[in-house]
Design brief:
The protein is mostly helical and 77 residues long. It has 3 helices and no strands. Helix 2 packs across helix 3.
């Protein structure tokens, strides 16, 4: 286990998931507990994958989504 990059990966995963749910770019008034839980769970998964390899090597978006069981990372346009 190598924890280099775990915090950065968690933050990136959290921001990515919040953006995918449409919560970035303004106030967070519409943020629900379910969205927070979902986003933190995804972020923790991204950090865990990062810790599973040597060096700071975070997963790519598709890899993180597949491993976390997230079907949709970004909203459809």
């Amino acid at each position: 286990m190598d924890t280099v990059g775990a915090g950065d990966s968690f933050t990136a995963g959290l921001l990515h998931r919040l953006a995918a749910l449409g919560h970035l770019g303004g106030r967070l008034d519409a943020l629900s507990l379910e969205d927070v839980t979902d986003s933190c769970s995804f972020a923790a998964h991204v950090a865990a994958v990062t810790c599973s390899v040597h060096g700071a090597n975070p997963p790519w978006v598709d890899e993180a989504a597949m491993e976390a069981g997230v079907e949709q990372l970004l909203p459809h346009a």
